Amino acid sequence: MNTAELAKRTTTNPAEALQGKIAGVSIMKSGGNAGAGIQVKIRGVKTFGDNTPLYIIDGFPGDIENVNPQDIESMQVLKDGAAAAIYGSVAANGVVLITTKNGKNGNLKIDFHSYLSFTDIAKKLEMLNANEYKQVHRAMYDNYNAQNPGHTVSLPAYITKETGVNTDWQDAVERSGLSQNYMISLRGGSDKALYAVSYNHAYDRGIFIGNDFRQDNVRMKLQMKKAFMTFDANLNFKYANDHQPQYSLKEMYMISPLVPIYNETEKYGYGLTNFDGIPNNRNIMADHHYKKSDGRAYHTDANIAVTFDITKGFSFKSSYSYRGEHGRTTYHAPDYIADIKGKNEYPLNSEGSNYWEEQVWDNVLNMNKTFGKHKIDAMVGSSLTGRKYTWNSVSVEGKTIVYKVEDGKLVTTQKPAGFLSTAFETINAGKGGTYSGSGSNWKYNRVSFFGRLNYNYTDRYLMQFTMRTDGSSKFGSGSRWGTFPSLALGWRVTEESFFPKHTAISNLKLRASWGKLGNENALGYYDFLARITTNNTMYQGYVRGTGNTAWPGSIATGLENRDLKWETTETKNIGVDFGLFDNHLSGSINFYRNETSDLLITKEMAPSTGLDSPVLNVGKMRNTGIEFEVN
């Protein structure tokens, strides 16, 4: 991947800059809003679970969204299963290798990069104005009356009455977008140490009001050498602040242009669909004004590695990586009315917090030896991975439920409670109201052992064999482990003595590979167990009185299945690499075939069983393709 071209794109996400640059790699943005994520698929869909590839950043698992494009030194996409096999089960969807820039021996180098871009909607929806809206609705009634002469209905007043209102709801919520980015970096070093520090600030204003996204990245990189030891350290911190529209875009094109945005005669100051029989919809501008939502995320990547050069051709590397993200969301809505059939009668405040972390400890022994024309690279290692996730949320609504008995029946009513002022946004502001809370957590562990052997004979005949074994806590004890081998062969034809020299063909290499990769992404963390859930609602709770209230009830709605096993993707690839005219023109042709067996799929159960639909190894999936690249 040409990283110089990548840095020219006006985006903070390197994955977005890959779009249309690499054959077999599909890039799609999840939405048009500021802060929308990127979906990356390599060589199609391979599982019903997550198809996101594995990102390796400076030798450690990471998130591509946490890397600034201007910080990237090189980027490589491993699409072939044999090439990605060393990374095991997490590499079943392909691997993207990223190396960030480091300092160089010499004077301090300071770089500054900035861009400013504007975004406009290329094509707006063709919406009806007030007169067209009346014409269409009049036609609907006329058609109905013509087809049902015995049951005619009269035209409602909103069709016949002139209100003088002609609201363009699309124009009310859309605007020009703005993106700005500022990045500064300092890089330098000496014979003994290299360092790099960078800071990036980005802000996106979306094309819809109420939508913006801010991101700040700080990255530090250090490499030191002393005698037979090499020390590498990386630290990255990212802060993100996200605001998404608090109104429905569906309501934007459904609400009538006859409804005014503002109406001073209404209690809350906004127009409603409460006149002349007009169809009911929400006033999206009222939702935008009264609802407040904020999402913040704090992400930390930190890793260290120590390499010991034991003797010539032998080295040992031990590394530790930590990734953690703390997310926090807040929401506030006072009592207000945007929809006469769905009134917000009571104020509501809520807060949510979550924390995710991953720790990886790798130990790898490497050997590099040359025996005459034979070159052997070998590697064996182990990897321990642990993940944790915890979340909780609490909310308070400005109401209380009153219970009383009338004529021998339990009657419940609601009345306002708490909130000295509905403008207060804290949880404590609702004391005296109705509180609710939820939360849970999970843990995950994986152990891996792997080895790889590379053989090279005079840069003419190439062979790579990889074997990896993974054990995951997602599976039962009887099927926890999976072993996944791969083999790749290469023949550089242009290195043969019989191949004519000084021709237009400067490089010709034939390749073939086969491999197996495991996948567990479609499986939940405890799907092999019969989990017990507790509810205190009419659904799966013990009802009392009229049924409007319930006592807690607990039940196992799933079945235990300790025979769940790894999805296995078998990959086959045949390819040709070529170079013409002293490699001024180069490229590759690949034919691949991927077949996933023991596919983890949710099998639908009949509702009468009273059980959740289980995940089973019951499917197969195959995708094939031809890739052609020219540089």
Overview in brief:
The chain is mainly beta and 631 residues long.
Question: Explain this structure to me?
Answer:
- The protein is mostly beta strands and 631 residues long.
- It is built from 8 helices and 28 strands.
- The strands form 6 sheets. A 16-stranded antiparallel β-sheet has the order 7-8-9-10-11-12-13-14-15-18-19-20-21-26-27-28. It has a 4-stranded mixed β-sheet with strand order 4-3-6-5.
- The chain is globular and about 95 Å long.
Number of helices: 8
Task: Average the pLDDT over all residues and give the rounded result.
Answer: 89
Helix/sheet category: mainly beta
Report the uncertain regions: none
- Total beta strands: 28
Radius of gyration: 31 Å
Distance between the termini: 11 Å
Oligomeric state: single chain
Helical content band: under 10%
Strand fraction:
over 45%
Shape: globular
Write the layout of secondary structure elements.
Elements: H1 3-6, H2 14-17, E1 25-29, E2 38-42, E3 54-57, E4 60-61, E5 72-78, H3 81-84, E6 95-100, E7 106-119, H4 130-147, H5 157-160, H6 169-173, E8 177-189, E9 193-205, E10 212-226, E11 229-243, H7 249-254, H8 284-290, E12 292-311, E13 314-333, E14 348-371, E15 374-397, E16 399-406, E17 409-416, E18 434-457, E19 461-472, E20 481-492, E21 505-519, E22 532-535, E23 542-544, E24 549-551, E25 553-556, E26 567-580, E27 585-602, E28 615-630
Parallel strand pairs: 3-6
Antiparallel strand pairs: 1-2, 3-4, 5-6, 7-8, 8-9, 9-10, 10-11, 11-12, 12-13, 13-14, 14-15, 15-18, 16-17, 18-19, 19-20, 20-21, 21-26, 22-25, 23-24, 26-27, 27-28
